[in-house]
Write a structure and sequence with these properties.
Low-confidence stretches: none
Number of strands: 0
Distance between the termini: 22 Å
Radius of gyration: 17 Å
Number of domains: 1
Helix content: over 70%
Mean pLDDT: 94
């Protein structure tokens, strides 16, 4: 019940944040956006699962740096530090999923087709944006690489046929990429109609899916 209430509050705050964007009250987002990752961190801390300490630490670090990045991105002048904070968050998520992979015996097979598709999509998107990136080309390219590694780490962490919670993590990683792709397109190429709302909607569901999938994996694993 406590977990359910925590998620309900999370989505209420997410909805409030999106509504503030929709009505142009961006200044009030200082009261909503910083709460989102805090609520998910509380969910992780109080989730009824026996998640090993090191796993929980990397998951919480991913949420911490995501929260810090959220706060920084509320200021247009702090875009690059915000990008750096999310860069670290994706590294924390990647380590978390790699730790699952190598403790999830037998180790899941390497899914080469997804590596190829992921790499092709990242290269195509970078080539599309490259003429518009200017001096931020290198940070954006490095960020695109690290978030694609995070997705690959999630794809390779689980035996999906008997660990369906892993799908939440993969969908969350994909939504994260979509959200960041929308940010990059709107900032460097052309603002999208309703882009800020779509960014927050995909981001909110991305983080929720990553956290719920990660905790559900350990809940089912321990119960067996």
């Amino acid at each position: 019940m406590l977990r359910l209430m925590g998620l309900i509050i999370y989505f209420i705050v997410l909805l409030a944040d999106i509504l503030l964007i929709a009505i142009g009250k961006e200044n009030y987002r200082f009261c909503t956006k910083p709460l989102l990752m805090i609520l998910l961190a509380v969910y992780v801390l109080y989730a009824n699962v026996k998640m090993p300490v090191t796993f929980r630490a990397f998951l919480l670090l991913a949420l911490f740096f995501s929260s810090f990045g959220d706060d920084l991105l509320l200021f247009d002048s702090l875009f690059l530090p915000g990008l750096g904070s999310f860069f670290i968050a994706h590294i924390m998520y990647s380590i978390f999923f790699l730790k699952i992979r190598y403790s999830n015996l037998p180790v899941p097979n390497c899914r080469y087709v997804y590596i190829f598709l992921n790499a092709a999509a990242v290269i195509a998107f970078i080539m599309f944006l490259l003429p518009y990136l200017g001096s931020l080309a290198m940070p954006v390219i490095l960020y695109a690489i690290v978030i694609s590694i995070m997705l690959q780490s999630a794809i390779h962490a689980f035996h999906f046929e008997r660990q369906p919670a892993g799908w939440y993590c993969v969908i969350g990683a994909l939504l994260f990429i979509i959200s960041d792709g929308l940010i990059a397109t709107g900032k460097f190429y052309h603002p999208l109609p309703g882009g800020d709302i779509l960014v927050m909607l995909t981001y909110g569901f991305a983080q929720w899916a990553l956290v719920v999938g990660s905790t559900a994996y350990f809940r089912v694993k321990i119960s067996r």
